[in-house]
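Exercise 7. Predict the joint structure of the components listed below.
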Amino acid sequence: MLQGLPAADAVAAAAVHERAAQVLRPSGALAWLDELAEWVAGWHRTDRPKVERPAALIFAGDHGVAAAEAVSAYPTTVTAAMFEAYRQGRSTISAFARQAGASVDAVDVGIGRPTGDIRFEAALTPERFEEIVELAVAKVGRLDADLLVLGEMGIGNTTPAAALSAALAGGETAAWVGRGTGVDDAGLARKRAAVQQAVRRIAGITDPIEVLREVGGAELTAVAAATVAARRRSLPVVLDGYVVTSSVLPLVMAERTALDHCIVGHCSAEPGHRRLLDRLGKRPLLDLDMRLGEGSGAMAAVPLVAMACAGISEVPTFAEWFG
Amino acid sequence: MLQGLPAADAVAAAAVHERAAQVLRPSGALAWLDELAEWVAGWHRTDRPKVERPAALIFAGDHGVAAAEAVSAYPTTVTAAMFEAYRQGRSTISAFARQAGASVDAVDVGIGRPTGDIRFEAALTPERFEEIVELAVAKVGRLDADLLVLGEMGIGNTTPAAALSAALAGGETAAWVGRGTGVDDAGLARKRAAVQQAVRRIAGITDPIEVLREVGGAELTAVAAATVAARRRSLPVVLDGYVVTSSVLPLVMAERTALDHCIVGHCSAEPGHRRLLDRLGKRPLLDLDMRLGEGSGAMAAVPLVAMACAGISEVPTFAEWFG
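Solution:
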């Protein structure tokens, strides 16, 4: 899955780095935004990066553990209802995307077809896992985009996200479990127990991709596969919150450079997210206490990436301006 | 200057607060963005806030202290050159504004007509002060906008910003003085000395608006006047970095509620800015280490405000969606 990943174009990135120091403003005045422009340039393989066609893929699926045990504040039927809202452009991510000039495609990878209950069995069979990977890869292949937002929706999916994080990043299992969409104290206790049970069940498994198949879920697998597919197309990715970040954790544990084409749009209020970002060494662009998922935090950061690129490509250097 | 400022529409804000809890997402999931939408609603006096016509006013002027003493990394002639770049849409703020769908108007309030050297004399005579206030008020009066970004440009203007902050907020004077566009160690020492001299000179003055006239400058005065003019039009304002924030400090010291219609777009890398924000009790939307001025950090935050409003006004409630 992770063999032969392309690297960024270091020459293009270096050209932008050099241009950033000469553009009509004090050198270093845009700090991190200049670094963002360099990063886009490296993956776009151009010294004049721009973001004109951002796109979001929102993967949605249902979870056996949520159907069997009340680990969420919402019933699993809400997944399908939200999916319909994405399709009709009525959701929060749709509204955000209109502001960012981005397209949104919601992809059903398992609504009404829940995964195995991760407490007792693998979330996905090898066949289902492959099927979802292929679907996600095909979706990315058909995109006409220059920046990709990955989002997810699936009632109960902070439970597999916590299981994945705990299994791969280690530490106190309970510390990876938050309230998600707002589960109550009893629900939080059930959620912790479910995560502990899932993590114990797979204690012998060391392959990070196998861990994803065992305790992840359909949309988590799709996010991981789409991330790899974007890399193969040299398409930069903006990651969203806790569920998305935990979905790509197996990639970076299998291959150290696997997330070099990804930035993190925001830090979620879900407590495990900041821990994951520390682990990945990635700083979120935004820190607004959001905890929605559906790619919303990543989409909120898209205009910053577009501005960073415009700040390099649309502004003359001192020499061009005065020369 | 600050008599009879209008208050926000509490009913409209409350209606948005209520709607935020019912919109098709977990209650509280957008956290701060929902509060932003409430804030816009209060000033727009509507329960369906939106940002469709953001506008930036960039005030530019020259400073006697910068002409007489090398307190900046750049010569004062750069103010005029940058102003021309704004007018031709070639600057960083122009590039950012295109991404945010905002207009930019650069306003000359004193280029080539430097203020008094604040070490020895008032920056502005009462007549010049009034003239600049009237110009700024007239500019705001002619805007067709629903969100206002205020920016500034003026070589050397972090020196008056530091003098204003030190004189009004107190504390160690040197702590308010940073490197601005990147002055060297010797320049920083000159800058500190200039600020100390200016602050000592006006030690007897207690009226915050008089302090602005004494140690501020043309564009700082224009920013303060525009902020008040926006308030009279019930137009919400996004403040930029250190210079803009110090410009409006006199307002809030003269009238506690004077900045209720203002949010802070970003926290600048100029060290005094975070201190000022703590003093004002305002949290910046972005924290990206930028230190450019010209309204760029505020403009970078505009899409977030637009998204916050769209997240309320374009997304149905659970009842509307399922009903």
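Discussion. Chain B has 14 helices and five strands.
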